[in-house]
Amino acid sequence: MSAHLPLRRFAPPPHEWGGEGLLPFRHLYLHIPFCRHKCGYCDFNAYAGMDRLMPDYVDALERELVFARERHSFQPLETVYFGGGTPSLLPAPEAARLLAFIRANFDLAAEAEVTLEANPASTDEARVEAWLEGGVNRLSLGVQGFDPKALAVLERKTDAAQATRAFGLARRMGMPNISIDLIYAVPYQSMATWLDTLGRAISLGPDHVSTYCLSFEEGTLLHRRRAEGRVPEVETDLQWDQLDAACVELGAAGFRRYEVSSWARPGFESRHNQAYWRCRPVYGAGAGAHSYATDMAKAWRWWNVARPREYISAAPATRADGEELEPRKAIAEALMLGLRTADGMVAPAGFDGELAELQDAGLIERVDGRVVPTRRGLDLHNQIALAVL
Ligand code: SF4
């Protein structure tokens, strides 16, 4: 173990390395922590100015994956997800190498969903070609908005023209499934500009749209700027109206809200994200990545060292810490996550009181033995989470 690693407080379960009882992994997440610039609102494990570490980082990822492959049980992967950070920043040869490595070392299911998160500024012909050749069949494009004022508050360095160009390029080159991320409740973003953003996103013809309510996370530049009064608060009524507008506009364009923040055309729901919401085992590789394993009673979660340099020196033994979830906690989490999705889940035993309370509050309803969130429950999912956890 590297000297950089913090002390382990996590006692590994006896069958942690693929023994009896644990479900095999069918979902793989790879974290690429590099960004051209750190956006003011971002509290992800993402770093600017470290591009020169990329080749060593890809080497370290490969070491971790070989190590994981030897210790855990993997079945043909149904989903692979490159998240970040900005995975599209990897130069085409590095991306091609990593994609080829995964195909050489893991079996992929016939219709596996392989997603890569891309920033419009780094979506170019050479990269799109490498992604498609390497098996990427779903692009998640971090557009965030089309309105220059909102993009300036978010400190995004991309603009509407770049987003439109990147989307068109990926589509023309044959990317079959493209998702767009948008952010609302941004200071200075009026209802008119949000409606315009939704309209422009829809007119591109995406298969999936995620809309996130801007949150001011402690430790971010945006949080500090708001605290100093340099950025105004967004009125709560306007936030709700903007969410409502997303429901109306995306619904009218044929998208179904299948999760709190996610809209899809039929058949284009994110299979990888559904693995999280359904508490399926997901192996997370890369700096700060989280893994989740379960034997259907208890569950285990662990995470890697976060800083890219420390991750590189630690690989292949990259784990920083972890926790064991007792059965009730594991079920509570599964319930909280299941109720993020419009289809909900089969009502688990032992939560009758909490579920009755949520039903009385109009946040969930019972449909054919399942508990499903109402529209109000999707909008106020944090209240469901509070009650369940
Ligand atoms: S590009 Fe994404 S991950 Fe990178 S700093 Fe901006 S918001 Fe964070």
Detailed description of the structure:
- The protein has 389 residues and is an alpha/beta fold.
- It folds into two domains: 253 residues, Aldolase class I (TIM Barrel, Alpha-Beta Barrel); 63 residues, no CATH class.
- Helix content is 38%, strand content 24%.
- The protein has 14 helices and 17 strands.
- The strands form four sheets. A nine-stranded mixed sheet has the order 9-10-8-7-6-5-4-1-11, sandwiched between helices. The protein has a three-stranded antiparallel sheet with strand order 12-13-14.
- The structure holds iron/sulfur cluster.
- The site of iron/sulfur cluster (SF4) has 11 residues, from loops.
- Iron/sulfur cluster binds next to loops.
Short descriptors:
disordered N terminus; binds iron/sulfur cluster; TIM Barrel; 389 residues; 17 strands; alpha/beta; globular
Write the layout of secondary structure elements.
Layout: E1 25-32, E2 34-35, E3 47-48, H1 54-71, E4 74-84, H2 92-105, E5 108-118, H3 125-133, E6 138-144, H4 148-154, H5 160-172, E7 178-184, H6 191-204, E8 208-213, H7 221-227, H8 236-252, E9 256-259, E10 262-264, H9 271-277, E11 282-285, E12 290-294, E13 299-304, H10 308-314, E14 319-325, H11 327-338, E15 345-346, H12 352-360, E16 364-367, E17 370-373, H13 375-379, H14 381-388
The site of iron/sulfur cluster has 11 residues, from loops.
